[in-house]
Amino acid sequence: MNIETKDIGHVIQLAIAPVFLLTGVATKLTVLMNRLARIIDRTRVLKGELRKAPNPEYSEELEVLYTRWQLINYALTASTGCGLLICVIISCLFLGDTTNLPLDRYIAGMFVLAMVALIGSFIFLLREVFVSFRYMRMHLHDLPAQPPH
């Protein structure tokens, strides 16, 4: 196996697009983790309040937070799977080019799976946002009226 510099340059060029995609997935994972952290923090506060005295409003909000937590976990799982597939794709691009293995179909299949995982992650995130907005709309009338400034 004789790998020339121009061949490695070509492989690096092929791997650049998946690397940019991986950067986007990593940013999305950060957003999802921040949302999950806020859900967990609010859950801790509500559980503390419920230990003091039962409150149906807190119990209802806790149920909504549990639903949101599930959806964020699904989104995190799908995004992580997408990121893992992208890493494998990058590895296969280098492996296929340096060893002349015919990995084209595997790479294409993994890319399709990565996109399905990414789409699923966005769907779960969107669903979580809708659950959050619906809860806020349901309790919008509970807020005290703000005096005009």
Describe this structure in words.
The structure is a single chain. The protein is mostly helical. It has helices at residues 5-52, 56-99, 104-138. The protein is elongated and about 70 Å long. The model has no long low-confidence stretch (mean pLDDT 89).
Quick summary:
This protein has 149 residues and is an all-alpha fold.
What is the mean predicted local confidence, pLDDT?
A: 89
In angstroms, what separates the terminal alpha carbons?
76 Å
Helix/strand class: mainly alpha
Per DSSP, the total helix count is 3
Query: Could you tell me the strand content as a percent range?
Result: under 5%
Order of helices and strands: HHH
Q: Helix coverage percent of residues?
A: over 70%
Low-confidence stretches: none
Extended strand count: 0
Rg over CA atoms, rounded to whole Å, is 23 Å
What's the shape?
elongated
The major pleated sheet works out as: none
SSE map:
Blueprint: H1 5-52, H2 56-99, H3 104-138
Helix pairs in contact: 1-2, 2-3
List keywords for this structure.
elongated
